Amino acid sequence: DSCHTAVVGETCFRTVVWAMENGIRSNPEWYFGLTPSSSFEVFQGVLHYANQGGCPRPCAPVVASPTSAPMSTPTPAPTP
After folding, report:
1. Cβ atoms 58, 6 nearer than 8 A
2. Which of 11, 33, 35, 80 has the smallest count of CB within 10 Å of its CB?
């Protein structure tokens, strides 16, 4: 099953932006569980499953992977 995160110029993109900027504030009950700070992909997913805005299933957002470098232990400051 393929995914596609909406991009500028697509109807879904405009629908998601409207939902994030206006819909969540004017009709929060339409977006149960979401907040104005929810991610673009989360909003698109809700619209997809509600068959709104012609939105396809979004791809997962890109998350930076943790580095494999070992963490150094902070050196305590010397006591005067």
Report:
1. yes
2. 80
- Cβ-contact 41, 59 below 8 angstroms: yes
- Note down pLDDT in tens along the chain; length 80 residues: 699 999 999 999 999 999 999 999 999 998 888 999 999 999 999 999 999 999 999 998 754 444 443 444 444 455 56
Who's near 20: CB < 8 A, 6+ residues apart? 36, 38, 40, 43
Residue in the structure block whose two tokens are 């909003």: 43
Q: What is the DSSP string of 12-74?
A: HHHHHHHIIIIIHHH-GGGGTT--TTS-HHHHHHHHHHTT-TTPPPPPPPP-PPPP-SPPPPP
DSSP type of residue 75: P
